[in-house]
Amino acid sequence: MKFGTKVIHAGYNPHDDKKSGAVMPPIYQTSTYIQKAPNDHLGYEYARTQNPTRDILQANLAALEGAKHAVCFGSGMAAVDAIIKLLKPGDEIISTNDLYGGTYRTFRRIFEKYGLKFHFIDLKEAKNITQHFNQNTKMVWIETPTNPMLNIIDIEAVATLAKNYSKDIKVVVDNTFATPYLQQPMSLGADIVIHSATKYLGGHSDVIHGVAICNDDSIEEDLRFIQNGTGAVPGPQDCFLVLRGIKTLNVRMQQHCKNGEAIARFLKDHPKVDKVHWPGFESHFNHEIAKKQMKNFGGMVSFSMKNDSMEAGVKLLSNTHYFLLAESLGGVESLIGHPATMTHASIPKEEREKTGVTDSLIRLSVGIEDAEDLIADLDQALSKI
Ligand code: P1T
């Protein structure tokens, strides 16, 4: 199956629903399952452990990433949490210094307490990673494109360097911004792919959901053990919403990419705008790597203004109509956000400013509305500054 067919058909065959042949997967809203005698059952015992609607979504997501297994969670952060729990005290993790603020917060404020050590480094040049490897390094954690600076990291180069140092290092790629439509990190050497399915996979800003994807049977087994033990499972209704959202992922992403490009180019030429971050520009530091590992450049754009005061930023954020001021991204509607006070507020100012997350940085999740309306909206808001 090609990608556009997989999003619609992978994981579920209506012929398998013997009762009705329902074209859409049934929502198994149940907490438990009948047993004929103790341990004599149809493979389902208790819904913290398994649920048929969740299984369908997991099969679909594994297929989209070209992987064997997918384990769905109640949120992207629940997936992050379970993956880190694969490690033990004393283990070290090398991560990008530009990543979702919530992930950074979990690493620093929750897991450091349990004896894990995180190194947050600039990975725009993959070779930078080598000086941080030591015998305790057990995981490399990257986002690409990064949130919110849209930096690109060479997945294949990072994975090769990690595996050359030690086969025991697990390479994790947060593929939330790119989606499997744009890039499939497993084929580039990743061991685990994680998503906040809340974003492009769900696609309609109506569900919180996460997933961890892998090929290795023992990683899958460990993730399921952790999940069953700690309970961060998604409900069947939420699994259904993500399944429904994914059906249009292929067409939505095409429009997100087109609109993202139109907005990035508009902003680049605007006299009030200073820097625009979008991997499709030839001047982007890793444009060539983006071209190599991604199918297109996505719908996320961030920028700073020449007037870099907080006041100017707040004025812009409060004056858009179609770009809704809200946390999150990846929905059909355009969102505008202020990383310094919203998604990345938990990163100390000195830390975030080193990577470009200044007080005037604005992040756009460009939706699939008509690009002309979106441009007019930003133009009128910029004219007020
Ligand atoms: O929100 P949740 O589904 O728990 O996913 C967390 C998460 C993980 N990884 C990345 C790259 C993310 O962007 C997120 C969530 N991000 C936002 C809410 C945001 O506005 O950036």
Topology (elements, then pairings):
Blueprint: H1 3-9, H2 52-64, E1 69-73, H3 76-84, E2 92-96, H4 101-111, E3 117-121, E4 137-143, H5 155-165, E5 170-174, H6 179-182, E6 192-196, E7 210-214, H7 217-230, H8 236-246, H9 249-268, E8 273-277, H10 287-293, E9 300-305, H11 310-317, E10 324-325, E11 335-337, H12 349-354, E12 362-365, H13 371-383
Parallel strand pairs: 2-3, 2-4, 4-5, 5-6, 10-11
Antiparallel strand pairs: 1-7, 6-7, 8-9, 9-12, 11-12
Helix pairs in contact: 1-2, 2-8, 3-4
Describe the structure concisely.
The protein is α/β, with parallel strands linked by helices.
- The CATH topology annotation of the largest domain reads as Aspartate Aminotransferase, domain 2
**Share of helix, binned:** 25-40%
> pLDDT under 50 segments (min length 5)?
none
Using the coordinates above, name the CATH class of the largest domain: Alpha Beta
What is the CATH architecture assignment of the largest domain? Answer: 3-Layer(aba) Sandwich
Strand content: 5-15%
The major sheet is characterized as: 7 strands, mixed
Cofactors and ligands? ligand P1T
Number of helices: 13
Q: Mean pLDDT, as a whole number?
A: 97
Q: In sequence order, what are the helices and strands, one letter per element?
A: HHEHEHEEHEHEEHHHEHEHEEHEH
Spatial extent as radius of gyration: 21 Å
* CATH evolutionary superfamily of the largest domain: Type I PLP-dependent aspartate aminotransferase-like (Major domain)
Structural category: alpha/beta
- How many β-strand runs? 12
